[in-house]
Design brief:
194 residues, alpha/beta, Rossmann fold, 7-stranded mixed β-sheet, 6 helices
């Protein structure tokens, strides 16, 4: 992976909301690598260059609001000539319970406006790290739900998913996506808490 993109909405009022799970993961990677994201207007986002184990990766948090995330991803990936298959987009996932996390490559947007815009800009052949936030149970409540902060027990589970994902981050940098998937997709069930 040469580009890690976290999806979210800019602004203090959105920081604690479920829709910003992607930002939370990128912030955790930045902390781990000892780098700070800086606003770069040409890339329409906050950007940092991280190095871990001798491998470099760009970190990006689009500051365009969720629905226009593709503009930032397109600008940075074109400038540095990074193909979609070397891009990992991290986002909140309604179809997974808090604490669950899945890795996959390609596919549709499943109603996620940030993914929709990225697909419109660079196609769908990028990797996705899907961080579960749960579903409100009613389609009409989704917008309100994703723009609210998780309950305390949900946040604990989401933080656990982020930590689990951080543990496989070196595997993703080395392009060992199979090992990363195995670790992410089986670990929770071994603990008996699924």
């Amino acid at each position: 992976m040469r580009l890690l993109v976290g999806l979210g909405n800019p602004g203090r009022e959105y920081e604690p909301t479920r829709h910003n799970a992607g930002f939370w993961f990128v912030d955790a990677v930045a902390d781990r690598c000892g780098v700070a994201l800086r606003n770069e207007s040409r890339f329409h986002g906050a950007v940092a260059r991280a190095n871990e184990g001798g491998r470099e990766c760009w970190l990006l948090e689009p500051l365009t609001f969720m629905n226009a995330s593709g503009r930032a991803v397109n600008a940075l990936s074109r400038f540095y000539k990074i193909p979609p298959e070397e891009i990992l987009v991290v986002h909140d996932e309604l179809d997974l319970a808090p604490g669950d996390v899945k890795l996959k490559r390609g596919g549709g947007a499943a109603g996620h406006n940030g993914l929709k815009d990225i697909i419109a800009n660079i196609g769908q052949d990028f990797w996705r790290l899907r961080i579960g936030i749960g579903h409100p149970g009613d389609r009409n409540q989704v917008i309100h739900y994703v723009l609210q902060a998780p309950r305390r027990e949900e946040m604990t589970a989401i933080e656990s998913a982020i930590m689990k994902s951080l543990e496989v981050w070196p595997l993703l940098l080395e392009d060992d996506t199979e090992a990363a998937m195995l670790e992410l997709h089986t670990r929770r069930h071994r603990g008996g808490d699924a």
